[in-house]
From TrEMBL:
Protein name in the entry: Transcription factor GRAS family
Residue segments, region Leucine repeat II (LRII): 315-347
GO cellular component: nucleus
Source taxon at top rank: Eukaryota
Record GO terms (molecular function): DNA-binding transcription factor activity; sequence-specific DNA binding
UniProt-annotated stretches for the region SAW: 449-520
Organism, scientific name: Helianthus annuus
GO biological process: regulation of DNA-templated transcription
Region ranges (Disordered): 16-35, 44-64
Length: 521
């Protein structure tokens, strides 16, 4: 459904809205201090078709590989500084996820002494919660269904107009009127039921209400049960939708081609999610070394994560370490908090001579770090071999964000995404439990972050990249071939891949869902 509304020109920061609604001070132009961060996706680590990328691997060993990873005091110190009492039933969480708690062991070294034997698929449950081995659909007997014919002209659809009125109130600081409209809207959108557009409207209503009164439900997943539920939701999302796999293998392929031939590969990831895409990347690196009968490069990962991501970071670290040991891959991972990065920029990241660097960004990350020229100039100074950006918000964020336009664009995008999920749920409509979990743990945090970031009036990241002299590097034909293979395995009509101005875009019918692009200076 198209929502043809023009954007108003008011500029208002969401922090001011929350301060006025709660009686807080009015000064300051900063953004909301803590944006809800959500994991991105769970990617399979299956063997990809052989890549046509070739290159001479340097067989010379770097003697300094094994002695470079001392942690900074400003980083998230996950080994010793985690207070386990903050997280409920940590041991049961590790057991349920099939992970071993190595927090009491000394730091791993890249030479990996006395490596254990490689696990077979039958004996390697550690990654089962995070990665799936094949693209599967929950309904193996699924017939192709097209939900695009749903009636969007119901009389009850004036909740869209009310949501837009609330967004306009935010821009004009009419806070009391916004609260009155929200009270009325709560009676109509009291639960995430109905068609895709109505459910999307419910989640935007929740996000707008959170700016006024604080969240109406627990949004910080700190307990073990909430983390397990979130992981299961992302795994389900990956199993029923091609979006996560498309995002991950296109990004991985761009990085693999850029760092080919390096003996030290350094990935700086601003949206690590659950780390599944990095496991797939590591597997490709290891397999490539075997094919070339050469020394496998060392892989370094620096993840920029929110402060509240300690528990997830520990799980990612332990899981990727186990996976790397199974691959006999020299590996290290460090975590830097967003707060530290905002102060120190790339000075908070440790670099090594001779390494090839790849940077992963996502459209949602720009809600936090912005797309300022200061950030891009700092990015230029580290001379990355490739900057990969995964835009998982369709056309959202292509213009400076305002509350009104965020709601309009967001309703269109997320109702489209929900329609694509409904097509994988024959006979269940939007009432299926697994769809509800995907909406709660995958989509709602993204909607909340987008609404909180509204009104900042920063340039779109694409525009900022171009103005800074960055150029888009088209993805390879092999990446396009992989995308087509993926869609042939999807049992639902409507998905297709297009190339657009150097980007590779996955669409649901004629509407974009996610786009991957690679950039260089």
């Amino acid at each position: 459904m198209k929502l043809p509304f023009a954007s108003s020109q008011n500029n208002l920061n969401s922090t001011h809205i929350k301060q006025e609604a709660t009686g807080g001070g009015g000064g300051g132009g900063g953004s909301i201090g803590s944006i809800r961060y959500e994991p991105k996706s769970v990617l399979d680590v299956q063997r990809s078709p052989p890549s046509p990328v070739t290159g001479n691997i340097n067989n010379n060993n770097n003697n300094n590989i094994t002695s470079v990873f001392s942690s900074s005091e400003d980083r998230l110190l996950l080994d010793n500084n985690i207070n386990i009492h903050q997280f409920e039933e940590w041991d049961s969480l590790m057991k349920e996820l099939g992970l071993h708690d190595d927090s009491t062991k000394p730091a791993y070294q890249l030479d990996l002494p006395e490596l254990p034997p490689i696990h077979t698929e039958a004996a390697a449950p550690a990654t089962a919660m995070f990665f799936h081995s094949d693209f599967e659909n929950l309904n193996p007997n699924l017939n192709a269904v097209d939900f695009m014919g749903q009636d969007d002209d119901d009389n009850n659809n004036n909740f869209v107009d009310e949501l837009i009125r609330i967004a306009e109130c935010f821009e004009t600081r009419s806070i009391q009127l916004a609260q009155v409209i929200l009270t009325q809207l709560n009676q109509r959108l009291h639960a995430p039921t109905g068609k895709a557009l109505q459910r999307a409207a419910f989640y935007f209503k929740e996000a707008l209400q959170a700016l006024l009164t604080g969240p109406t439900r627990v949004t910080q997943s700190s307990s073990s049960s909430e983390i397990v539920q979130a992981i299961k939701a992302y795994k389900t999302f990956s199993n029923v939708s091609p979006i996560p796999m498309f995002s991950d293998f296109t990004a991985n392929q761009a990085m693999l081609e850029a760092v080919d031939g390096a003996m030290i590969v350094h990935v700086i990831d601003f949206d690590i999610g659950l780390g599944g895409h990095l496991a797939s990347f590591m597997k490709e690196i290891a397999e490539k070394g075997e094919v070339h009968k050469a020394n496998t490069p060392a892989v370094r990962i620096t993840a920029i994560v929110p402060e509240e991501y300690e528990t997830e970071s520990k799980l990612i670290r332990d899981n990727l370490w186990q996976f790397a040991r199974g691959l006999k891959l020299r590996f290290d991972i460090e975590f830097v908090s967003f707060r530290t990065f905002e102060y120190l920029s790339f000075k908070s990241v440790k670099f090594m001579d001779g390494e090839k660097t790849a940077v992963i960004l996502s459209s949602t990350v720009f809600h936090r770090i912005g797309s300022s020229f200061g950030f891009i100039n700092d990015l230029r100074r580290i001379s990355p071999h490739v900057v990969v950006c995964v835009d998982g918000e369709g056309l959202m964020g292509s213009e400076p964000s305002l509350f009104r336009q965020t709601v309009i664009d967001g309703l269109e995008f997320y109702s489209t995404l929900l329609e694509s999920l409904e097509a994988a749920n024959v006979g269940g409509g939007g009432g299926s439990e697994w769809i509800r979990k995907i909406e709660t743990f995958v989509l709602l945090p993204k909607i909340t972050a987008a609404v909180e970031a509204s009104g900042r009036q920063v340039a779109s990241w694409r525009e900022a990249f171009v103005r800074a002299g960055m150029r888009a590097v088209g993805l390879s034909q092999f990446a396009e071939f992989q995308a087509e293979c993926l869609l042939r395995r999807v049992q639902v009509r409507g998905y297709h891949v297009v190339k657009r101005q150097g980007e590779m875009v996955l669409c649901w019918h004629d509407r974009p869902l996610v786009a991957t692009s690679a950039w260089r200076f």
